[in-house]
Amino acid sequence: MIAAALRRGGAESEEAVIFGDTVADVEAGAANGVFVVGVATGRTSREELAEAGAGVVLDDLTDTDLVVRLAERLTPDA
């Protein structure tokens, strides 16, 4: 699904960021070479997301300014 989204959007994996709250999200992003921001809002802990390979782990997405700045910093053409 991630590879298809990248193709459809004409993006390279280095140009994308995925936000996910499960180990499966992190693993899917990593398998496609995409930087993953883990969000510990579900059943998965910060530690589990980090151990799965998330590049950054946030507690939640309530600080929208931080989320936007992070996404902009991680995507070269944002």
TrEMBL record:
One Pfam family, short name: Hydrolase_like
GO biological process, one term: DNA repair
GO molecular function: phosphoglycolate phosphatase activity
Protein name (Swiss-Prot/TrEMBL): HAD hydrolase-like protein
Bilayer-crossing regions: none
Keywords, sorted A to Z: Hydrolase
InterPro entries: HAD-like_hydrolase_sf, HAD-like_sf, HAD_sf
Keyword Ribosomal protein: no
